[in-house]
């Protein structure tokens, strides 16, 4: 842009620059002749005479001027451009024309006119020639201005083209950098320490790590069991200041036993069987499958035995099956004599694969050597119940017995956090307890990784049993013990608080779910007077409802200063 502007200015002032150069710089060679006292000198033509032609200014001798005598004339120099060679002819009024080497021209070339045959001898002709030169100079200057104007018109177009080209180059560079960064992120996805929970891949082609919460420095404070009559008071105290004491208690939990090993899970043959590279079963508590002949490490599955309140190996905590491990999952169900499967995740959450569908929608399907057929499906508000008939496929002459397996699929767990209320989970847990046969093997519980929601379900079940037996709960102690059997059981502090809320809900209100057929009997019972009080059961039940502590953290929008005036009563936001 600066170069174009400089050329524009230089082109428009070219004639004046040339004149200044002539008057300030002396000619190389100038020939003069004796001046004539009778007549003023006449300038030579400026129409491009051939440089080698010598011209003489002729004057009439003996002519006496009629006007007052003029001062002695000085030698005048005349500049005439030579259009043929591009040089300048410097001629004296009394001398010959001397060529000067041409200088580089910044103006467009002008077609020279034909040289004149005669030299003007009269002042009128000289004046006419001078006027012609002025017009020619103006035309040349006008042509120069027109050329510069055309260049000026082209300048914005060139600038726009340069800007667009630069923009395209920048966009291309950004796209290339983004693709390289995305490729690098994808390759390092399994080693990411991001806090964002991205549980699973849609294609299940390579394992990734389960993001774990950053732990605050633990304290040496002990957390003994809580009596049930102190449960509400303790929960309210620990929930103060945005659950500060609950977070301290959760961070004090042991991460994993010091001497625990995961050698089987870390073998190269078993790495693809793990959904997350950092959620692996310990060797001392993992489930062993019957080895398949000719298949190395076919006894491995990402699942661990977990104790109940008083029952050893009551549960099997497993990861959500992958496409590659569905056959192993059903083989475990068959070998462990499992009659109940608890699923605490959806197949996809936040458009991410959490678990492969390991059952047929209808009819039957064979997974490895286990044939699974759908017998019944019941869809409820918070969960779905599916009943399967499974049978081991073998020799047709030796028909294998069939078994009934019930899957309880909890569908009300949100994608983020925990359920808003523990009521749905308590009903779900009650259904699982009542439907699991006494003769059956371990209850298989799984979510996506088999540690967070899975651990939450197992802890609530065990603490309800402890509450009924000992009238106290030991959440901290029980979570610490099952973490010695599988890493990261109860994965977040929100899940830890949710366990306490479920226990308090059950303690305060009990089991309020009734069958329709028993409603009349229940009404007759609560209309009776409660021993030791002046109120009946219905009134006592209503008092429990009014004693529920209002949780302001769940009404933050209604408590905003801008919204307070919109509420009729401050206690009902």
Describe it for me?
This is protein-tyrosine-phosphatase. GO terms for molecular function: protein tyrosine phosphatase activity. It is a single-pass type I membrane protein. The protein is an alpha+beta fold and 573 residues long. The chain folds into three domains: 2-60 and 70-147, no CATH class; 231-513, Protein-Tyrosine Phosphatase, Chain A (Alpha-Beta Complex), CATH 3.90.190; 514-573, no CATH class. Helices cover 34% and strands 12% of the residues. The chain has helices at residues 2-12, 14-24, 123-187, 231-251, 326-335, 423-435, 452-470, 475-482, 493-509, 519-526, 537-546, 561-564; strands spanning 77-81, 88-92, 97-100, 226-227, 303-306, 315-318, 340-343, 348-349, 352-353, 364-367, 370-379, 383-392, 402-410, 443-446, 472-473. An eight-stranded mixed sheet has the order 5-6-14-7-13-12-11-10, with helices on both faces. A three-stranded antiparallel sheet has the order 1-2-3, with no helix packed on it. Strands 4-15 form a two-stranded antiparallel ribbon. Helix 7 crosses helix 8 (475-482).
Arrangement of strands in the largest sheet: 5-6-14-7-13-12-11-10
Main sheet overview? 8 strands, mixed
Taken together, the total number of domains comes to 3
Could you tell me the radius of gyration in angstroms?
51 Å
CATH topology title of the largest domain: Protein-Tyrosine Phosphatase, Chain A
Measure the end-to-end span: 66 Å
Structural class from helices and strands? Answer: alpha+beta
How many helices? The count is 12
| CATH hierarchy, class of the largest domain | Alpha Beta
Q: Which shape, going by the Cα principal axes?
A: globular
Number-wise, the strands total: 15
Going by CATH, the architecture of the largest domain would be Alpha-Beta Complex
- State the fourth-level CATH superfamily of the largest domain: Protein tyrosine phosphatase superfamily
Helix content: 25-40%
Average pLDDT for all residues: 76
Uncertain stretches of 5 or more adjacent residues? 3-69, 71-79, 83-98, 104-121, 185-206
Secondary-structure element order, as H and E? HHEEEHEHEEHEEEEEEEHEHEHHHHH
Strand content: 5-15%
Transmembrane segments: 157-180
EC number: 3.1.3.48
Region (Disordered): 18-127, 191-226
Domain Tyrosine specific protein phosphatases: 426-497
